[in-house]
Amino acid sequence: MSFDKLKLIEKAIEARENAYAPYSNFKVGAAILLSNGVYILGCNVENASYGLTNCAERTALFSLISNGYKKSDVIAMAIVGATPEPISPCGACRQVMSELLPSDCLVILANLDKKYIEYSNSDLLPYSFKEECL
Ligand code: THU
């Protein structure tokens, strides 16, 4: 399905503005485009107990599920950080993305200059842990 990639990146930039990152000062935004045209947004949310921090990607994905959507509703996801090159999602988020996004879902990694690189979800975490492993 064709869609406006720059608009999805702009939504992730918009989501980033809500980031709560007083400890790292590193704000991240994520936006998920659904087939009904809805955008689900997420930002990183830090905590004084640092390990409780939730990354932007997982915030958006948990919001997706919390709002009653499924991976089959998802067209694409964009992630944005103030990085010189397009941001690279952490391993924990890649694991959650591997389960909650379609395996062939387009994932757009971007920076604030809207420089971006595209990946297929399954290429971001080869040999991920799956429910079949249980
Ligand atoms: N962070 C994300 O939100 N997503 C990433 O892909 C990388 C890291 C957040 C976690 C923490 O709040 C801050 O960025 C610095 O690591």
Task: Write the SSE topology.
Elements: H1 5-16, E1 28-34, E2 39-43, H2 56-66, E3 74-81, H3 91-100, E4 106-111, E5 116-120, H4 121-124
Parallel strand pairs: 3-4
Antiparallel strand pairs: 1-2, 1-3, 4-5
Bound molecules: tetrahydrodeoxyuridine.
The site of tetrahydrodeoxyuridine has 14 residues, from helix 2.
Strand content: 15-25%
Number of strands: 5
The N- and C-terminal alpha carbons lie at a distance of: 33 Å
Low-confidence stretches: none
Quaternary state of this entry equals single chain
Helical fraction: 25-40%
Give the topology string: H per helix, E per strand.
HEEHEHEEH
Shape: globular
- Mean pLDDT score: 98
Largest sheet: 5 strands, mixed
Structural class: alpha+beta
Strand order of the largest sheet: 2-1-3-4-5
By DSSP (H or I, 4+ residues per run), the number of helices equals: 4
Bound small molecules, by name, code or SMILES, are: tetrahydrodeoxyuridine
Gyration radius, to the nearest Å?
14 Å
Would you mind describing this structure in some detail?
Strands 2-1-3-4-5 form a five-stranded mixed sheet. 28% of the residues lie in helices and 23% in strands. The termini are far apart. Helix 2 (56-66) packs parallel to helix 3. The model has no long low-confidence stretch (mean pLDDT 98). It has four helices and five strands. The protein is of the alpha+beta class and 134 residues long. Strand 4 and strand 5 (116-120) form a beta hairpin. The protein is globular and about 35 Å long. The structure holds tetrahydrodeoxyuridine. Tetrahydrodeoxyuridine (THU) binds next to helix 2. Tetrahydrodeoxyuridine binds next to helix 2.
